[in-house]
Amino acid sequence: MRISRFVAPVLLLTLAACGGDGGTPSQPSTPTVSSHNAGRDCLQCHGFSLAGTVYRDDGSAYPGAEVRLTTEPGGAGDVVLTLTADGAGSFYTDRAVSWGSGLYTDVRGASGTLRTMVAPITGGACNSCHSGADRIRAE
Ligand code: HEC
Ligand code: HEC
Fold first, then answer.
1. Which ligand 1 atom sits closest to the C-alpha of 19?
2. Domain boundaries in the chain?
3. Which residues contact 23 (CB under 8 A, 6 or more apart)?
4. In sequence order, which residues have a C-beta less than 8 Å from that of residue 20 and are 6 or more positions away?
5. Please, which pLDDT band fits residue 19 given cuts at 50, 70 and 90?
6. Of 10, 33, 78, 112, whose CB count within 10 A is highest?
């Protein structure tokens, strides 16, 4: 019960700090535009269906990296969505996604090597899991 008494005020503060849904852009990320808060969980403040940040193996942000959602693991099946990371390495869209029982995701950088996430996901808050040493990385 201590937890709920703690969480409620924090949520209120967070929403106040965000001004609700902070100007969520309707256009998806594009390499020629940059954004803020790279690495943070964008969905805490924005109404994106999917968002996150891609890094290179050396830890620098990866503008132009490609992120996809597919219906089958390993980059197979139908491609449901393709996004390109913006100038800060972040990708985002507010386009509705039908997650169903789960979709698969992969990233690709300039080398063309596909890095695939094995487990299916049912939500687009990529940076909520990929933080600290577990960033999304492309090569
Ligand atoms: C703590 C809340 C918060 C987080 C986390 C956050 N944002 Fe924002 N964002 C805002 C607010 C508030 C605004 C509007 C005011 C501003 O530009 O700072 C905004 C504005 C933006 C804009 C500009 C919108 C426009 O129409 O000009 C983009 C793009 C954006 N955010 C993307 C992101 C991405 C991508 C992430 C995650 C990597 C992210 N934001 C994380 C609160 C947040
Ligand atoms: C619920 C937590 C969670 C969410 C949400 C999540 N991931 Fe992951 N991701 C993981 C875990 C755990 C692994 C390692 C195990 C695996 O591949 O399933 C991983 C692995 C990956 C890998 C492979 C890493 C490598 O080095 O080869 C990529 C790429 C990736 N995720 C991208 C994404 C993208 C893009 C999103 C958002 C569309 C996302 N992930 C959402 C937890 C998550």
1. 12
2. 23-137
3. none
4. none
5. very low
6. 33
Q: Is the C-beta atom of 131 inside 6 A of ligand 1?
A: no
Binding site membership of 118 for ligand 2 (Cβ less than 6 Å): yes
Antiparallel, parallel or unpaired: β 50-55 and 124-125: parallel
Options 2.60.40, 3.40.50, 2.60.60, 3.30.420; CATH for 23-137 is 2.60.40
119 in contact with ligand 2, CB cutoff 6 A? yes
Give the distance (Å) from ligand 2 centre to CA of residue 92: 16
Of residues 62, 69, 67, 39, the one with CA closest to residue 133: 39
Does ligand 2 come within 6 angstroms of the Cβ of 124?
yes
Specify the residue with its C-alpha closest to ligand 1, atom 26: 25
- With a cut of 60, say whether residue 15 has pLDDT above it: no
Instruction: Calculate mean pLDDT across residues 81-108.
Output: 98
Position 22 scores a pLDDT of 59
